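So, read this over?
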Amino acid sequence: MFTDLNPTPRILLGPGPSDIHPRVLRAMATPLQGHLDPEFLALMDEVQELLRYVFQTRNKLTLALPGTGTAGMEAAFANWVEPGDSVVIAVNGYFGDRMCDMASRYGAEVRRLDIPWGEVYAPAQLEAELRKKPAKLLALVQAETSTGALQPMAGLGELAHRNGALLLMDCVTSLGGAPVEIDAWGVDIAYSGTQKCVGCPPGLSPFTASPRAWEVLGQRKGKVPNWYLDLTLLAKYWGPERVYHHTAPINMVYALREALRMVQEEGLEARFARHRRHAELLWAGLEEMGLSLHVPLERRLPSLTTPRVPQGVDELAVRKRLLADYSIEIAGGLGALKGQVWRIGLMGHSSRRENVALLLAALGEILGR
């Protein structure tokens, strides 16, 4: 016989998922409706409007894909890449590397750029590559979850367009916690996840595409090879036609609507300021302990911080003690930074002053500082 579900309460201060506000948890317990019920369809319209607010866009094709942020990445390449398409991918961390893998699986000619993990790209670096020969896509990670670096995006849409490319942006760790300005930046394709700064459980991927991107999608020579994430089909379910495509995760849509309502109530500027304020408290406290931060201040992501592991310290042992003694979760490094950094997230409902104070006290006790 299995026991009742009774997981140990955790304080989630890793790279995601983040803690969930009780209002969002209550919304998940709302009684089910059918996925074609008129009332539920009206809720879907509200979710789209709220997503446009958070993305800062008027894009008609704005919706929540069924799946986590990785489904958003998959949808971006599945829909806009055909065999032989030239794609420039600017890699500066683990998730840029994942972009290369996905694009290649759909037959792209991947033109990969690389800089050290934790650095960001200057526009001149990107334009130099685009001028070598035409590319269909220029793809970047705005908020690299593996490094804590924030890529400046202003002007990159214009840069991509004058070189004949669409601009694709991963904003999984920034949406709802740092400025994401789809229309102002000229971003054509963007995806995110619900479990980070948006403040919702994992399970949906906010997605938006510009009219320019939609026009290019309509010029495909063949069908989108991934049926489940085919946006030409999904748009008919989320649009006025309401053509059945899949059974929507009803309770996740309820949760997302409530989380987005909370973003709107707080206001984007106030929410960004809260994330930044608590990040600065964390940065100052870590530096007072003598820990160095992997990413310089001028390109640091407020929602995800990467302190370097001091020489001689077992980073896994520290994380285990945080979990066992304080019920705090943080994460270790990924890929090239494995064993070299910790990843500390202050995202959504987790971005609170008391969480910063507790984590700093716990780390100080464990490290003897």
User: Anything to note?
Assistant: The chain has 13 helices and 14 strands. Residues 268-288 form the longest helix (21 residues). The domain at 22-264 is CATH 3.40.640.10 (Aspartate Aminotransferase; domain 2). The CA atoms of residues 243 and 277 lie 45 Å apart.
